[in-house]
Amino acid sequence: MPQVPEQIASAGTLESPALPNSAGSLFQLFRDGQPHTRAWLASMTGLARSTVSSRIEELLASSLIAPAGESSSTGGRPPSTFILNPGARCTVAVDLGGTHARLAVTDLSGHILAEEDHALAISQGPAAVLDAVADTAERLLAQAEQSPSGVLGVGIGLPGPVEFTTGRPTSPPIMPGWDGFDVPGYVRERLPVPVLVDNDVNTMALGEHTMVHPEVDHMMFVKIATGIGSGIISDGHLQHGAQGAAGDLGHIAVPGGDDAPCTCGNSGCLEAVASGPAIAARLRTSGLDVPDHAALLELVRDGEPEAVRAVRQAGRDVGSVLAGCVNLLNPSVIVIGGVVATAGEHLLAGIRETVYSRSLPLATQHLRIVGTQTSGRAGVLGAAAMVTHHMLAAPQVNALLS
């Protein structure tokens, strides 16, 4: 029997698969958000109409589905239809960056019911940050008029490597005091529901894929902010790798970046060359007043030549690393997000320039490199999707019904 990940096991995942005629298995057909009739469900599953009716009654009693009215009929009484009920439960979604926190309460379809975005330094340590997260979550639940008992789960994205099987950070460079910390266990003390934790860029990739590019099977999401990282979607699924370190783009060496010291202890890493702080530091050596991200972005938007050149060069540096990824993974879409990406087309132009010139023609034949379309919400949307993907799977739905 394969090992069940600790954080998933604590979230209620069952080792054995759901029975094919169970209510949880039938519920999977409703997750497309479309209304379905008993006859259609019976034809798709091969179950008897009586069995389908019984399972529908179970799902109706749990409020996971709801009547959707009557469909058109070619004669006789129109058949009743049923649909996923997004308001049956809610999720608490948390996106933590190096210096910020965005939290949201969402329904089961990912619609945001309440949200808050504020400054929060991850360097304060796990207890202080997670206490602030719990306080904000409780406030948002009240604002959204959602009962804590209706929370399906909490999803958290952290700005560092996370061992996905346990939800614990692993030697995160910009997160002092977090190494090995039991994030799911600590959060459950305040919010006693399933808690799932992943790297923040993985949640962003999941959010952008779920909400914007669901039809894309091969995609990368690249976050450029205080750090640099990527999330990889392959064959429609988020990839974690053996220990959850897949996509750690920021610590690949950049040609010509050998002298730049990195927070990981090495030098010449992409993060040390092209992240927001790295660009700002380079501009300060040129005599510009660039204390933070906001000042950098303001200079770029004002068209300050040195700032524009620095951002475009950062794009080229990112592109030099991404070119290898394109040859290796052959994605059809690369989405660029993070605060530095809000600098606009200058960054994207630098990335495209290098990727298209250094990658194989076959790999770039249909490749699109685009900016994020989730307005800074990719992380919370992905954290919510992480919860629903796990907690609305057939075994968990069966456990919920029982």
Automatic annotation (TrEMBL):
Q: Which InterPro entries match?
A: ATPase_NBD (IPR043129), ROK (IPR000600), ROK_cs (IPR049874), WH-like_DNA-bd_sf (IPR036388), WH_DNA-bd_sf (IPR036390)
Q: Which Gene3D superfamilies match?
A: 3.30.420.40, Winged helix-like DNA-binding domain superfamily/Winged helix DNA-binding domain
- Pfam families given for it? ROK (PF00480)
Q: Which PANTHER family match?
A: GLUCOKINASE, ROK (REPRESSOR, ORF, KINASE) FAMILY
The entry sums up its family as follows: Belongs to the ROK (NagC/XylR) family.
This protein is called ROK family protein
